[in-house]
Write a structure and sequence with these properties.
Layout: E1 3-8, E2 12-16, H1 36-45, E3 54-58, E4 62-67, E5 70-83, E6 86-87, E7 93-96, E8 101-117, E9 148-150, E10 175-181, H2 190-198, E11 201-207, E12 211-215, E13 230-231, E14 236-239, E15 245-248, E16 255-256, E17 260-264, H3 266-273, E18 280-285
């Protein structure tokens, strides 16, 4: 059986798949890879089903050794990927030999790599998913140096000769995200709702898998007072009492007590996963 022996996990390495939807009533978020399209692409490059478990690598700085050969692919963030010191082209499948060492350098564009191996990482599922939920603390523990990750059986599909997608690095400049109206947009003044679209926002240092706080003008409420806790979805933009918005992500609480002014459209959520602290963000109507 092929295994991956982790020598250096980098800032944060998590096993993630497409998540565990359907458990919000139990207080469990779907979780899963933040950049779902990068996960699907990495899996497709090695012939896996789209939802096979992969590693989500924050920033990079990852090194591991293959115990047994196998195919792998790295997508998402854009940076140096080397196998036994040889540079691997971005967003391509490559074959490792017994004892090959894979090194994923610090990301130059974007912030989260997705590393897929042919067969997927075979870790025990929790509630039907192999994803780590960093808020609830369920699913596989974060990967540590010395961990040995088992790799599953070969899938039926072969490794494709050519993939249909053209690979582009995540943008380093301003990213524009599509928004839909939130359920509590009427809690905010007309000026605040306009400012959401007129202002240029920045991703703060307070950004993780739970949510990404934005830095910009304070969004003024029209309606004050407490809001009973209500359901949230990925992409909900909650606005706390100080007027600063936060985009809730995959590991968010499934309910929240701050009003949601808008919701990032599903087609823009993968872009949020690759935003770096300090990067500029603008919004448009979906």
């Amino acid at each position: 059986m092929t295994r991956l022996v982790v020598e250096q996990p980098g800032a944060l390495a998590l096993v993630e798949d497409l998540g565990r939807p359907g458990f919000a009533r139990l207080g469990v978020a779907a979780s899963g890879a933040l950049d779902r399209s990068a996960l699907a692409l990495a899996n497709r490059l090695v012939g896996n089903p789209d939802g096979a478990a992969a590693l989500e690598l924050l920033v990079g700085g990852f090194r591991a050794r293959f115990d047994g050969g196998g195919w792998f692919a790295v997508t998402g963030a854009w940076g140096s990927v080397r196998l036994d010191g040889r540079v691997i082209a971005p967003y391509t499948a490559a074959r490792a030999r017994e004892g090959s060492v894979l090194e994923v350098g610090l990301a130059e564009r974007g912030i989260r790599y997705l590393l897929a191996v042919r067969g997927g990482f075979d870790v025990p599922p929790v509630l039907g998913s192999r994803s780590r939920d960093t808020l609830a603390g369920i699913g596989p523990e974060p990967v540590r140096a010395g961990d040995v990750l088992e790799i599953g059986a070969e899938p039926a599909a072969s490794v494709p000769v050519v993939d249909v997608d053209v690979a582009f690095p995540p943008p380093a400049s301003t990213v524009t995200l599509a928004l839909r109206p939130g359920p509590r947009a009427d809690w905010f003044t007309d000026a605040a709702r306009q400012a959401l679209f007129d202002a240029e926002w920045r991703i703060s240092e307070q950004a993780d898998r739970i949510g990404a706080r934005l830095v910009g003008p304070a969004l003024e409420r029209r309606q004050q007072g407490e809001l009973p806790s209500e359901a949230t979805v990925p992409g909900s933009i909650q606005v706390a009492g100080g007027g600063q918005p936060t985009i809730l992500l995959a590991d968010r609480p499934v309910t929240g007590g701050y009003p949601v002014i808008a919701i990032v459209a599903p087609g823009s959520l993968d872009a949020v996963a690759q935003l770096r602290p300090g990067q500029a963000v603008r919004f448009r109507h979906a």
